[in-house]
Write a structure and sequence with these properties.
GO biological process, one term: sterol biosynthetic process
Structural class: mainly alpha
Shape: elongated
Helix content: 55-70%
Order of helices and strands: HHEHHHEHHHH
Radius of gyration: 23 Å
Signal peptide: 1-20
Distance between the termini: 48 Å
Organism: Sanghuangporus baumii (Phellinus baumii)
Strand order of the largest sheet: 1-2
Number of helices: 9
GO molecular function: oxidoreductase activity, acting on the CH-CH group of donors, NAD or NADP as acceptor; transferase activity
Transmembrane segments: 132-150, 192-209, 229-251
Largest sheet: 2 strands, antiparallel
């Protein structure tokens, strides 16, 4: 019973963390509409400098911005897909003798090849039930929730001016309240917490990607050719999803560090002395007294 309760709590936290990741990585509707409007208008004008004055400006090439938005959306789906696989595997592992478990678990969570296993085959379906509250898992969930809280507060403070692209909208205002009174780019800080936490979840030793063997070097075996083919496709998909996520987030985090001063420059140009006063009051971009 303790295993069932522990697994249930683990699943609840996992789903909540992934949901928080998805929400914090999804542009607010009104902000997305503003970005889409600028993307469409600047595609017609071909150049931001040709856009009508006062109608808003999307900084940077349209194609680059579209690729960025597509990458962000793709990471949401990649993380959510692996979470779904882990939830299903954990639920089935609670009752390994049931008919659905006997049919599906050998594909989702196959036994490792003889001699290469770190855990004996009869115990293998229970592996996902062990150490459900590992320090890495708890740290990952905590990081995601902290980042989610920061991001949601930034969404609320910025309102229609919040955007996943670098934009200066019509009637743009310099927001100085809430998290923006602590650092100048708190949404980036929140994003790093969210994305870093999700990487920990994806690579955790007791997470699905590691437990199923998709990221291990040893060879999985099965006597069923169809099951073997499904395993190969599944594990290849998991490897691609994890690799894509980690690679994109590594690039994106570096890009945010590069983009922050660019945004500061555009705000300085738009608000002049008002921004200079704000920069003196809030001198740090990401973390107070550090960066």
């Amino acid at each position: 019973m303790s295993n069932i309760l522990g697994s249930a709590i683990h699943i609840a936290l996992l789903v909540a963390a992934t949901t928080a990741h998805t929400i914090s990585s999804t542009p607010p509707r009104i902000a997305q509409e503003s970005s889409d409007h600028l993307l469409r208008s600047q595609e017609k004008e071909k150049n931001a400098a040709q856009c009508p004055a006062g109608k808003g400006v999307l900084h940077g090439p349209v194609l680059f911005n579209r690729i960025g938005l597509l990458g962000v959306a793709s990471t949401r789906y990649a993380a959510a897909s692996i979470t779904v696989l882990e939830v299903v595997a954990r639920l089935l592992s609670v009752f390994p003798s049931s008919l659905p478990s006997r049919a599906i678990l050998p594909i989702l969570l196959p036994s490792p090849a003889s001699g290469d296993s770190l855990i004996s085959a009869p115990e293998w379906p229970q592996k996902l039930l062990t150490d459900v509250f590992s320090p890495i898992f708890l740290l990952a969930v905590f990081s995601i929730f902290v980042g989610f809280t920061i991001r949601r507060k930034c969404f609320a403070e910025m309102g229609r001016f919040f955007s996943f692209t670098h934009t200066t909208l019509e009637g743009h205002q310099l927001v100085r309240s809430g998290p923006y009174g602590v650092v100048r780019h708190p949404s980036y800080t929140g994003e790093v917490f969210v994305r870093g936490g999700m990487i920990l979840l994806l690579l955790a030793p007791t997470g699905y990607a590691r437990s199923c063997g998709a990221l291990q070097a040893y060879q999985m075996v099965t006597s069923d050719e169809l099951a073997g083919a499904l395993q190969a496709i599944l594990f290849a998909s998991v490897r691609v999803a994890v690799t894509f996520y980690v690679t994109w987030i590594s690039f994106n985090s570096s890009y945010l560090i590069w983009r922050a001063p660019k945004e500061d420059a555009s705000l300085r140009e738009a608000f002049g002395k008002q921004w200079e006063e704000y920069a003196k009051e809030v001198p740090y971009r990401f973390i107070p007294y550090i960066a």
